[in-house]
Amino acid sequence: MISATPAVFTLYVCAALFAAPLMAASIDTEKRVQDILSRMTTEEKVDLIGGVEGFYIRAIPRVGLPKLKMSDGPIGARNDGPATTMAGGIALAATWNPALAERVGGAIGTDARSRGVHFMLGPGVNIYVAPMNGRNFEYFGEDPFLGGRIATSYIEGMQKLGVSATIKHFMGNNSEFDRHNVDAIIDERAMREIYLPIFEAAVKRAHVGAIMDSYNLTNGQHLTESAHLNTEIAKQTWGFDGVMMSDWWATYDGVAAANGGMDLEMPAGDHMNRATLLPAIEKGQVSLAAIDDKVRRILRVAVRFGWLDREQTDVSIPRYSAAGALVALQAARESMVLLKNDGNLLPIDSSAVKTIAVIGPNAYPPVPNAG
Questions:
Q1: Element (H, E) at 16
Q2: Cα-flanking dihedrals φ and ψ of residue 159, to 5°?
Q3: In a 10 Å sphere around its CB, with 0-12 CB exposed, 13-18 middle and 19+ buried, how is residue 30 labelled?
Q4: What is the separation of C-alpha 16 from the centre of its chain, rounded to a whole number of angstroms?
Q5: Which residues contact 259 (CB under 8 A, 6 or more apart)?
Q6: pTM given for the model
Q7: Which sign does the torsion angle of CA 93, 8, 153, 225 carry?
Q8: CA 105 to CA 26: how far, in whole Å?
Q9: Which residues pair with 124 in a beta bridge?
Q10: Residue 222's beta-bridge partner residues?
Q11: What is the rounded CA–CA span in Å between residue 176 and residue 167?
Q12: Cα-Cα-Cα-Cα dihedral sign, residues 325, 328, 332, 333
């Protein structure tokens, strides 16, 4: 369990979130990545940075790259049939228990391995600042210190299973309504102190494999085109060496995205494709080095997690996990906050009321998602 008084909160943020050194890719990994890259054609490279079939990175068998599978999250492996539903992010944060968050990440990672999933699309970590945001249920609240500790533990638990986490939605994702057009105006200090620290902790402490760019604009620019956030801050300042992918259909301009630090367009190469990028490379609007960097990042994650050397589907893991269900139950229990009815403020007479009925769509069936 963790706790922090207001007086020491600021000190904890600096000392605890970013104390662990960044785990750099090994020399052997980089040699292997470069060998594969050197055998790819420009057309293959451009093809690779656009997803296929909804939730995959395409295979290139000629160079030994298998098709890489994704599953939506972050509260369970939502693709490929029923899976254990974990406590929502806001509930997990309410446990104040990083060790439990690590178990939750591990349970989701276990479900992912039973289904052959390489990338889990979670955790979701945006700051709970707008109460009407339809994604708040899956985020970790308004506290970047607490959110950072929960997120890094969740990621570490998942990635130990050989599954890459994908932290999202980078950044300022404060509305589901009109999410393609909403512009989050956030000054630099607020970004650095409130909105970015959880992502930074995920990169520096947990060495997260992927970051997902959000739909919205921040300060007048779509995140999939933001060289300031994607390249200058995440990749250069923090040292992020993984894959910067788009949210689904969150890419709006192929050249701008290619130059803005986005590495992978999902679910398909609608904008970052041969028709757009090959002429742009020829005209010098996009450098081949930028394309190579995107491909290198995808290959680096694949090598790092061992995906080129084994089958991702672990048939020894049951798809219906009794152990995972116990983790989900424990997270639900620890997330509960008990209120004391001082002064009888609640209209409940405990001597007279023996049962309480919950009626309506939130009573049955369970609602694991919001809107």
A1: helix 6-17
A2: -75, -20
A3: middle
A4: 21
A5: 225, 227, 285, 286, 290
A6: 0.90
A7: positive
A8: 25
A9: 168
A10: 217
A11: 17
A12: positive
Place of tokens 């060289």: 227
Instruction: Tell me the average confidence (pLDDT) per consecutive run of 10 residues in the chain, 371 residues long.
Output: 43 40 69 98 98 98 97 94 92 97 98 98 94 91 97 98 98 94 96 98 98 97 98 98 98 98 98 98 98 98 97 94 95 90 82 86 74 51
Give me the active site residues, please: 247
DSSP conformational letter for 26 = P
Percent composition of the chain: helix, strand, coil (DSSP 3-state, to 5): 40, 10, 50
Give the residue carrying structure tokens 């904008």.
271
pLDDT at 25: 63
d(CA 113, CA 167): 18
What's the chain's length in residues?
371
DSSP lists the bridge partners of residue 70 as 119
Handedness of CA 94, 170, 229, 264 (dihedral sign): positive
Q: How far apart are CA 112 and CA 120, in angstroms?
A: 7
User: What is the DSSP track for 111-127?
Assistant: HHHHTT-SEEE--B---
Q: Identify the pLDDT of residue 15.
A: 39
Both tokens assigned to 58: 């395409």
